[in-house]
Amino acid sequence: MTATKLFKEFFDSEKAGGLVLIACTILSLVLTNSPIGTDYQLFFQSKFAGLSVEHWINDGLMAVFFLLIGLELEREIYIGELSKIKDALLPLLGAIGGILLPAGIFLMFNYGTETQSGAGIPMATDIAFALGILSLLGNKVPTSLKVFLTALAVIDDLCAIIIIAIFYTKTLLWINLFIALFIFCLLLVLNRLKVRNLIPYLLGGIAMWYFMLHSGVHATITGVLLAFAIPFGNGDEKSTSYILQHFLHKPVAFIVLPIFALANTAIVVSGDITQTLTENNSLGIALGLIVGKPLGIFVLTFLAVTLGLCQLPSDLNWKSIFGVGLLAGIGFTMSIFITLLAFDNETIINNSKLVILLSSLTAGLLGFISLRQTLSKSEK
User: Average pLDDT, stretch 274-300?
Assistant: First the structure.
C-alpha cells in the first residue's frame, strides 16, 4: 500500500492532535476538580446567542470535525483504500465487528434498563487519539497498518453518525428538515454544474446547519452531507475537496477537538469510584471498548480472510490487527459525544465520561504495548 501526500498530512496532523487532546483532557480534569471547578463548568453553560457555549461547541464546532471526516471518507471511497471493494472489505468488516460486538456486550448488561440507550457509546473510535498512540511507535509502523486503522476509524465514525441520526433523534420538525435537505440538493446541483468556488458551498452549508439544528436531527450530520456535496473532481491538489480538506486539518486537530475536550471532560471525580465502575452502564462501556472492540475487529477480519473475501496485506499479521483493534477501543471524543445524546441524567453522563476516559486509557496502553512487542519482533 502507498500513502498519498494528503493521507500523510492527515496522519501527521491527527497524531500531533492526539497529544494535544491528552494535554487538554488532563487540564480540564485538573481545573474541574480544583477550587475554580464550579466557575469552569459554569462558563461552558453560559449563554451566547440563545445557546450555551457547550452547545455551540458540540453542535457547531463538531460539525466542522464531521466535515473533515466526510471529506476524508469521500477521498477514501473515490481514490483511496475504499475505492476497490476487495481492499475496502478488510477495514469495513473490521469496523462492523468493532461496532456489533461492543454494542452487544453493552446491551447484555443494560438491556431493559434506563441506560440501554447508551449502546452506541462503545461503538466509536477516536481517530486523533488512536493515531496519536500509533505514532508513538515511530517508523516501526507499516503504512498499511496506518491506513487500516484510519479507514476503520473513519467507517466507525460514519456508522456513529448514522446511529446518531436514526436513534438519537427525539422529535422531528419536518419543515426544517426538508428545508435542510432541499439546500443539500441545491448544493448537489451546483456540484453537477461544475461550480468549483467554495463560497456558495460554505454559505449553503451554514444555512443547512441552521435548519438541521432546528429540525431535531443532530446538526453535526450537516458536516458529512456538505462534504459529499463539495466537488471532488479528480482529487488532485487543485480540486475543491482537496483544498478544503488540506485547510481543515490543523484547525480541527489543534482547535476544534481540543476545545471539545476542554468542554466535555469537565468530570467531577467524587463519591465511591468502585461503585461507579461496577454499575451495569460502566461495565457495558468498559468491556465494550476494551474487550468488544479488539475481539469484534479481529474475529470478523479473520473470518473474512479465511473465507477468501479479502486479503491481509503482506506486511501485516494477526497480532498487529489485534493490536490495532485494542487502539480502536479508544472511544473518547465520539463516545463522549454519543453519551451527551444518549442520556439526560447528569450523574449518568458524568459517570459515563469517567468510564470512557479510563477505558480509553486502558485500551490505548494495551494497544501500545501489544503493537510495540509485535512490531519489534517483526523487525528481527
Answer: 94
Rounded distance, CA 255 to CA 65, Å?
10
Q: State the Cα–Cα distance between residues 179 and 259, nearest whole angstrom.
A: 30
Torsion sign (Cα): 267, 335, 212, 58 = positive
The separation between the first and the last C-alpha atoms of the chain, rounded to the nearest angstrom, is 22
Q: How far is C-alpha 146 from the chain's CA centre? A: 16
Instruction: Please say whether the beta carbons of 288 and 106 come within 8 A.
Output: yes
| 113-129 pLDDT tens trace | 999 999 999 998 887 77
C-alpha cell at 374: 509485535
Q: How far apart are CA 282 and CA 73, in angstroms?
A: 31
Model confidence over 123-157: pLDDT tens digits? Answer: 988 877 787 788 777 777 887 888 788 788 878 87
Rounded to whole angstroms, the Cα distance separating 86 from 27 reads 44
In angstroms, the Cα distances linking 282 to 11, 80, 257, 277, 356 are: 31, 37, 24, 5, 8
SS3 101: helix
For residue range 36-57, list pLDDT tens digits in order: 988 998 998 898 888 889 889 8
* Cell numbers linked to 182: 432541499
DSSP H helix total and E strand total for the chain: 18, 2
